[in-house]
Here is the input.
Amino acid sequence: MTTTADFGATVGAAKRGHPTGLYVLFGAEMWERFSYYGMRALLVLYLTKHLHFEENDALTVYGTYTGLVYLTPLLGGYLADRFLGQRKAILIGGSLMALGHFAMAIESLLTLALGLIILGNGFFKPNISTMVGQLYPQNDPRRDGAYTIFYMGINLGAFFAPLVCGSLGESKTFGWHYGFAAAGVGMILGLITFTVKQRALGTTGYPPNRSVSGEDRLVAIDWVHVAVLTLVGAGLVYLAILPAKAIEHSIPSRGWWLVLGYWIMLAFAMIGLTGLITRQRRSGPPAPENDAERADLPAQGSGRVAEVIRPTEPFTSVDIQRVLVIVIVALFSILFWMGFEQAGGTFTLFADKKTARVILGNPFPASWYQSINPLLIFILAPLFSILWTTLDRTKLALGATAKMGFGLIFLGLGFVVMSKADQRAVGGSLVGPQWLAFVYALNTLGELCLSPIGLSLVNKLAPARIASLMMAVWFLCTAVANYLAGMLHQWIEQTDVNLWTFLIYTSIIPGIILLALTPVLKRMGHGRI
Here is the structure.
């Protein structure tokens, strides 16, 4: 799950002197994450227990879904920067996701529902994060505190989502459709929060080159654009489903290449239709000129990739070495997220089938385990910030890559515990609820060591001209990792290797290697690691 790059500001300090618009974005993002994680908590269980998918097929769907969720922000960020502005993009994305969540309640619309959520996330996710930074002038010291509050909203929504949606979805009284409907209601509440309180956002998030003097809300033509483009997006997803399946089934050996090209063609169609409907002149913000501007790039996704590449100046040897560090670290991150994303797949199946889910005599749903991660992040993130700050003042200071190495090792230790739990569950025996809880705790420690540190590292090392491109590489690696996470169980079953043993080796050994490489990577970072 996403975590903030700097939890250094205390909550109390973060709340002082912030514009009201920040809390509007906080509320909208909290409800959007509630909807996303609520649906994520139920997806594999719904596929296996209600639609009777084989476990491997359900995990493949999960991996493909979570992988594409990290790819579509490239499209949504680009369209927002070029044509729409962040406000309209957020409303389009939220509307598509709400439609997707409600469509999940209809079994025959499963593929359409997932497609709508994937596309909607691409419009919503990168642009609401961008608007947080736009509320403040460059170099404003309140920004760190603002992102702290914003990411607390993410974790708040992620914490309650499995508790609410999971309880409804796994309940015999209500059922899966109620769980998905609750996720849809959460998205609607996020849209209402954003729409009703948009005056508090001032003049941020408007389309490129619009004069916004005195304006603080979208006008009638903007709502027409939102409605039309929401329908266009939904229509493209619907039209894409049958031809894509037909291509893949008719040419099984090479079908996936054609399917990929087909989806790329549809992405360009979305870009062209958006330009035609909005009739905005193609011009975007200038390339970032300093570190303060570059600090916003992670939130903006890669919609600005084309804007920040300036080939007129040659890269120096220092630039090249720093980019190599980013690429090396991004490859290690694939191994981390491949293991971490077992949370919504194999961990959920283990919780459902091999865990005695009882506390104080009361049973609880398998999906509740997915609330452990955001709860621990909420509690531990400030403590980790204090720990890193304290260590940095001593001889025990750790470089960024060393912290990430420890993140992989923590993840691997979680799989050691998972392996022991799986051994105890042989022959139909159920293990206690504490086993999986301990695994989630170790994974969360690993996330806190790797995820925020990695984002910060990319920010520090990327040359300004390709900062968004490097951030795109980071998130593309996450997309690849999520897909691998879903496919891994199926691939491993065809060998004599145990899944948990494999993940132990692909976590702990790379973590040790990254620790060993830290002195070399520090030299290549030239003072920025």
Notes: The first strand starts at residue 358 and ends at 359. The chain has a mean pLDDT of 83.
